[in-house]
Design a protein that fits this description.
Blueprint: H1 11-15, E1 32-38, E2 44-50, H2 52-56, E3 60-65, E4 94-95, E5 101-107, H3 110-117, E6 121-126, H4 133-136, E7 145-146, E8 150-151, E9 154-156, H5 159-165, E10 168-176, E11 188-194, E12 197-202, H6 207-218, E13 225-228, H7 244-256, E14 260-263, H8 266-272, E15 279-287, E16 293-304, H9 318-321, E17 326-335, H10 349-367, H11 371-377, H12 395-406, E18 419-420, E19 423-435, E20 441-447, E21 453-456, H13 466-478, E22 485-488, H14 505-529, E23 545-547, E24 550-553, E25 556-559, H15 560-567, E26 572-578, H16 585-589, E27 593-605, E28 611-621, H17 628-647, E29 678-683, H18 707-719, H19 730-733
Helix pairs in contact: 10-18, 13-14, 17-18
Bound molecules: dioxothiomolybdenum(VI) ion.
């Protein structure tokens, strides 16, 4: 079962509209609707806020501002991950960024709430702030650590001496813009008061973090918060934690004793959820004439909100990617009065690889060497900074297999040398690398007396395929047909998990299911082999085979339903766990990542510089695949994001106000069907025995990593023009 291209088990519910998303819940009777009023300055303070006319408007039940909002828990910096901390709102008249909530209007209908927001009269003092990254790029500080607790700086050997002595050098700056997760389902919730408890239907990635964060903010016992999120319409980092709409809805529901719904509009999402920091990156590569790197430096400067530090781990994978004796990486932050930086799909690797893999292409060009060959020449034997072995890399296999399948030998050797009519044609490639993470996760598997199984965990399915892969792993573990397995996810009453994020969800929860099934099998065998009424009595459990809903030992067989019914009249269950990676010795002993190689062909209009992707291929090494179909979808989706990062995505800040000016999906461009021709993703057969017992690693984000650089490198190959300021738009190529 594991690895098969099983169709999504939740597919029929989704295409028939029976999968209920957060804002569609209707529990607790007629809800009230809240609408957030956002600050119209980017820095300063509220000097007067008048809610009287809004309160008198039709349908309005209450208007909450900093003047009447309940006291809330403060952020606790001793909690290592921001998403588990309190997220207080409306705490003071101070404004920290444009769009910050200054009021919540609660009314009988959504329209009445929204209409009344215009009647909230706010006066501000100030307005001037630090909004322009380029103007403040040199005013930096070093954070203590970067995202995921990784070190801020690293150094090996003597970079300056190594770089100074190199025969061929690349020294370039690359810039990447503010980018957003923008899942199809907006951030939204219904909060229903039930006695002293709150039931929170919220679109989120990590149920345990949502509960902890809401409880800490509202200063409630976490046991009184019940999270429900069976279906999530995409997250991509923007739902790792809880945002102001959920805190405001919870405060309003508790105050009004009625259910309250709040959803963010698409425009509000741009101001209230957080974005990938903008970055300026300097990459220096020094190599011998044979292409062997002697020195690598990757220095990153990013924006951060001054109160909510966030440092994307942009240079982190540069520490592991290529061999070179002299190395240096650093991350610096410049505080700006903008929304906080946040995890956005492949945080770190996506912008970092745009820079490093562009620089590698520049080095190949300077050497007159094939870019694939340059990567192969710099393949390390051990992790070059940690000096530990790779668990399971196969990057060179990805490069060779990708080059063969793509027809890389047809790449134009000289840039701007191939023309088809108006179109200049070019090939580009780049490498993918992403860290593999693991967190504490518990899963319960239960066998009923009818021989069917139920898998329970608070893990979420963001549309990624969790329901399906857990069905497969449980069916495999118990020898059941998949339609005899039911998966229950996304409720805080279920055993807690690390949820979906960082590409860890699938491997984590599958490993826990696999282990739960192993202990369940053991319980069943102990019962059957020791039971005189069983045909398996006295046989050796070590010879047992679980298949087709039965246990077979030698020639004898008994149905699971009979074993359960006779020995466990109420059903039988077992739990399986994974632990925090910091407590797993393999994380210290090995460098554990996923890898890939991207190949892209573009056409560039020789008159207008319009760039069209013509085809794209990614070949990946991710250990064992859990479902061939959902994995391929994840990888292709990631590659398309990479195309967006290369050619389209960019949120632009108004330097006068700190607002994002293109704050909707008409103006913040992402690839649409017409932008994406033939794209294929291939996964090498694999099994990473250091990652976990299933040999599986995540596929959610590795598809994005490096994909954009492959496209940008193809644009260079087509035109001879190197654009280092992403996205590569036509006016920069002309
Ligand atoms: Mo991912 S950016 O950790 O959802």
């Amino acid at each position: 079962m594991i690895g098969q291209a099983l169709n999504r088990v939740d597919g029929p519910l989704k295409v028939t509209g029976r999968a209920t998303y957060a804002y569609e819940h209707w529990e607790g009777g007629q809800p009230l609707y809240g609408f957030i009023v956002g600050a119209t300055i980017g820095k300063g303070r509220i000097t007067r806020i008048d809610t009287e006319s809004a309160e008198r408007a039709p349908g309005v039940h209450m208007v909450m501002t900093h003047l009447n909002a309940p006291a809330q828990g403060a952020r606790d910096e001793s909690i290592p991950m921001e998403i588990w901390r309190a997220q207080p709102v409306l705490t003071s008249p101070d404004i920290h960024h444009y769009g910050e909530p200054v009021a919540l209007v609660v009314a009988a209908t959504f329209e009445e709430a929204r209409a009344a927001t215009d009647l909230v009269d706010v006066e501000y003092a100030g307005g001037r702030g630090r909004f322009d990254f380029a103007a403040h790029e040199d005013e930096v500080y070093a954070p203590k650590v970067v995202n995921a607790g990784l070190p801020t700086d690293t150094a090996v050997g003597d970079f300056d001496a190594g770089f100074g002595s190199a025969a061929v050098r690349v020294d370039q700056h690359y810039t990447t813009p503010y980018e957003f997760s923008m899942p199809m389902e907006p951030n939204a919730c219904l909060v229903e008061p039930r006695g002293e408890d709150l039931v929170v239907y919220v679109s989120c990635q990590i149920v345990d973090a949502a509960r902890a964060s809401i409880a800490a903010t509202l200063q409630m016992d976490p046991a009184r918060i019940h999270i429900v999120t069976p279906f999530v319409g995409g997250g991509f980092g923007s739902k790792l934690g809880i945002h102001s709409e959920t805190i405001l809805a919870a405060l309003a529901a508790r105050a009004s004793r009625q259910p309250v719904k709040v959803a963010l509009t698409r425009q509000q999402i741009f101001q209230l959820v957080g974005m990938r920091p903008t970055s300026s990156q300097r990459v220096r590569l020094g190599a011998g004439r044979d292409g062997r790197l002697v020195a690598i430096a990757h220095e990153v400067t990013m924006h951060t909100n001054p109160d909510l530090e966030y440092a994307e781990q942009t240079a982190a994978t540069t520490r592991s990617l290529y061999a070179a004796p002299h190395r240096f990486t650093s991350h610096r932050l410049t505080p700006l009065d903008l929304p906080r930086g946040a995890d956005v799909r492949a945080p770190g690797e996506q912008p970092g690889l745009l820079a490093v893999e562009s620089a590698m292409d520049e080095l190949a060009d300077a050497l007159g060497m094939d870019p694939v060959e340059l990567r192969i020449r710099n393949e390390p034997t051990v992790d070059p900074e940690r000096d530990v072995p790779y668990s399971n890399r196969h990057l060179v296999d990805c490069l060779r297999e990708g080059a063969r399948r793509f027809g890389w030998e047809r790449r134009p050797a000289t840039p701007a040398s191939v023309r088809e009519g108006r179109w200049l044609v070019g090939y580009g490639m780049a490498v993918a690398i992403r860290g593999h993470y693991q967190g504490p996760t518990t899963v319960r598997v239960r066998l009923e007396t009818d021989g069917s199984a139920v898998v329970q965990t608070d893990m979420t399915d963001l549309g990624t395929g969790t329901y399906t892969i857990l069905t497969q792993v449980a069916a495999d573990g118990l020898g059941l047909p998949p339609d005899r397995v039911r998966i229950e996810l996304g409720r805080s009453e279920l055993p807690s998990s690390w949820g979906s994020g960082g590409s860890w969800g699938a491997a984590n929860s599958s490993t826990a299911v696999h282990r739960a099934c192993a202990s369940l099998r053991e319980k069943l065998l102990v019962a059957a082999c020791g039971d005189a009424r069983s045909p398996l009595h006295g046989l050796d459990p070590a010879d047992a085979v679980f298949a087709d809903g039965s246990v077979r030992i030698d020639g004898a067989s008994e149905a699971l339903s009979e074993i359960v019914a006779r020995n466990h009249p109420g059903g039988v269950e077992a739990e399986g766990e994974t632990r925090f990676m910091g407590d797993d010795p393999n994380y210290a002993a090995y460098s554990i990542h996923t890898y890939g190689a991207h190949f892209a062909e573009v056409g560039v209009d020789s008159d207008t510089a319009e760039i069209r992707l013509r085809r794209m291929l990614g070949v990946f090494s991710v250990g064992r695949v859990l479902n061939a179909k959902t994995a391929r979808s994840q990888l292709i989706g990631g590659m398309i994001w990479g195309v967006g990062a290369a050619l389209e995505e960019e949120a632009i800040v108004d330097p006068r106000s700190g607002a994002f000016v293109n704050r909707d999906l008409a103006q913040y461009l992402v690839p649409v069907h017409a932008d994406i021709p033939e794209v294929d993703a291939v996964v090498l057969d694999g099994y990473d025995d250091k990652a976990n017992v299933l040999g599986a690693k995540g596929v959610g984000e590795v598809g994005i990593c490096g994909a954009g650089a492959a496209v940008a490198n193809a644009v260079f190959n087509a035109t001879g023009v190197r654009v280092r300021d992403f996205p590569v738009t036509l006016e920069k190529v002309l």
